[in-house]
Write a structure and sequence with these properties.
By secondary structure, this protein is α+β, with helices and mostly antiparallel strands. Helix content is 40%, strand content 40%. It is built from 1 helix and 7 strands; from the N terminus they run αβββββββ. The strands form 2 sheets. The protein has a 4-stranded mixed β-sheet, covered by helices on one side. Strands 2-3-4 form a 3-stranded antiparallel β-sheet. A hairpin with a 2-residue loop joins strand 2 and strand 3. 25% of the residues are buried.
Length: 129
Amino acid sequence: MLVMIGFALAFIIPLALLFFAYTGSEVADSSIAQAKASVRTIASEAGSVYLQGAGAKKALLVNYPEGIINGSVEGGIVSLRLSIEGGAMDVTSPTFANITGNLSGKRQGGIQRVNLVNVDGRYVNITYG
């Protein structure tokens, strides 16, 4: 009986370890994809608000993954720093609009409200709402 249990454990333990390793990498891939979608949405909508002219406003709801360390808006690039297995990763998206704002600070994963405001037709201010 003990020999049978030993053989069963010899097969089950490596399979369990392989399953957990695979699941961890899938979670990281999902977080990266979710962060890419978030920055792409913010950058795209910033361009839309910029083209609408002075006074245009828009409030977005974007879904952040778990592990957001920081965010930034500068030089025509919207960026989120994401903590993933093995380190940190920057996820960025460019926009043609002249942008400024503040997306800094650690955030919880989930729905975030982001406000976009065209200031005097010169630039789009991006902040959390």
